[in-house]
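Whiteboard transcription, Tuesday session. T.W. wrote the structure tokens on the left side:
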């Protein structure tokens, strides 16, 4: 039987101060879980693809690989890493964090196993939304940058829409756009602040651990550990803060969506009204 935690009300709008306070409090309070959920996805990509595979260049310098392999290994590893970090990593990490946040909102202790199983169940539709988002934003940036910037904010919450509201494909991007509609500048500003705060917090934490590892072990190990921690913490923070912002937008637009005030799944905690 799952334990109990203090529930949070995801059904009411919040200003920037409330969002920052709730995001930081929730993230730090459940940091071991959130870190684990992101680490299990980020670490294999950073260590195996970016580190081991791309690092075969070191073997070339040692004379164990030929020049063709020397040229192919880092390029191929870079392409695979980029594809994974644009698709699988954000899709799976976001889905797991959304599920964990929903559990907390109901007053239930979030579970690593439940979040992982539930996220894998929606990985394909969420992954498709993330791919569509990346393609649209990428093409938008090629078209004089401004369209890409506009779409990057308007469709930012496609993954959350796929998990929370069971939207699929273009429908999830459309739902995100409906929530952002009329508040683009507000959302862009909040995302900027959340991103900046996440960079600072995750950077400081990763640097501290990296320095300790470097002192105890060696400098290369410290850099590697710091890189993994930085990406893990950054992705986790982005998923938590972005999910809470999604629910804020959802609450603000609730009257515009039939059934939004009484969703089928009980994702909100007790009302404070």
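and on the right, the sequence the group agreed on:
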């Amino acid at each position: 039987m799952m334990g109990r935690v203090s529930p949070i009300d995801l059904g009411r709008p919040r200003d920037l101060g409330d969002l920052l306070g709730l995001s930081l409090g929730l993230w730090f309070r459940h940091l071991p879980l959130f870190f684990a959920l992101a680490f299990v996805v980020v670490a294999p990509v950073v260590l195996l693809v970016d580190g081991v595979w791309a690092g075969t260049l070191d073997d070339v310098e040692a004379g164990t690989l030929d020049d063709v392999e020397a040229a192919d290994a880092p390029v191929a590893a870079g392409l695979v890493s980029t594809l994974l970090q644009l698709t699988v990593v954000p899709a799976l990490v976001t889905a797991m964090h959304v599920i964990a946040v929903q559990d907390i909102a109901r007053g239930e202790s979030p579970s690593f196993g439940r979040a992982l199983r539930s996220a894998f169940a929606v990985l394909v539709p969420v992954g498709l939304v993330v791919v569509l988002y990346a393609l649209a934003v990428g093409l938008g940036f090629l078209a004089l940058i401004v369209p890409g910037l506009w779409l990057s904010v308007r469709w930012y919450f496609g993954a959350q829409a796929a998990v929370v509201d069971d939207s699929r494909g273009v429908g999830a991007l459309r739902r995100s756009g409906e929530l952002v509609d009329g508040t683009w500048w507000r959302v862009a500003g909040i995302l900027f602040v959340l991103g900046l705060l996440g960079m600072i917090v995750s950077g400081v934490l990763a640097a501290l651990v990296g320095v300790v590892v470097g002192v105890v072990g060696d400098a290369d190990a410290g850099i590697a550990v710091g890189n993994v921690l930085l990406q893990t913490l950054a992705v986790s923070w982005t998923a938590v803060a972005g999910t809470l912002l999604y629910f804020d937008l959802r609450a603000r637009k609730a009257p515009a969506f039939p059934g939004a005030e009484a969703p089928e799944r009980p994702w909100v905690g007790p009302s404070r009204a």
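Someone added at the bottom: Residues 45 and 81 are 6 Å apart (CA to CA).
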